[in-house]
């Protein structure tokens, strides 16, 4: 059984429009969401063995609280190819993972992350898939389980969505 967590970076700061897109930081709400999500992921038992993260500043800032919380229990791989990656690139990155990793987190960007999440959902997850397709905002987290032993065997339409949530809703309910 493999578990894949897909998290869109937290809310970024647009106060300096001249800043290059990949260099935008998180705004105040994004910083709070990232810290909350780090604790939420661990509390739910979804602690990743390995994480793939876009090199964009907002993605790196989103995973930072989780990295600090887990210290050396999760290897984080920062990858340029995940910046604004489309679903095929993201899925290929998943399929190349070391099979000793049981739970993996990807922190990346829309539209590719949302498109991947929607495409992974199995028939039993169609309601969740529809919610993801309707709105996958900053900080949104989807968690899938796959009945496979190898990451290379993950295919579209075969992931059981065990969770989908948005930070604003989760923080309000906690």
Your description of this structure?
The longest helix is centred in the N-terminal third of the chain and has 16 residues, at 28-43. This protein has 174 residues and is an alpha/beta fold. The protein has 6 helices and 6 strands; from the N terminus they run βαβαβαβααββα. Helix 1 runs parallel beside helix 2 (57-70) and helix 3 crosses helix 4 (112-120). It has a single domain, classed as Rossmann fold (3-Layer(aba) Sandwich). A 6-stranded mixed β-sheet has the order 3-2-4-1-5-6, sandwiched between helices.
Brief summary of the model shown:
The protein is an alpha/beta fold.
Number of domains: 1
CATH class: Alpha Beta
Radius of gyration: 15 Å
CATH topology: Rossmann fold
The CATH superfamily name is: Phosphoglycerate mutase-like
Shape: globular
Beta-strand percent range:
15-25%
List the helices and strands and how they pair.
Blueprint: E1 2-8, H1 28-43, E2 50-54, H2 57-70, E3 75-79, H3 87-95, E4 103-108, H4 112-120, H5 126-134, E5 141-146, E6 160-165, H6 167-173
Parallel strand pairs: 1-4, 2-3, 2-4
Antiparallel strand pairs: 1-5, 5-6
Keywords:
Rossmann fold, 174 residues, six-stranded mixed beta sheet, alpha/beta, 20% strand
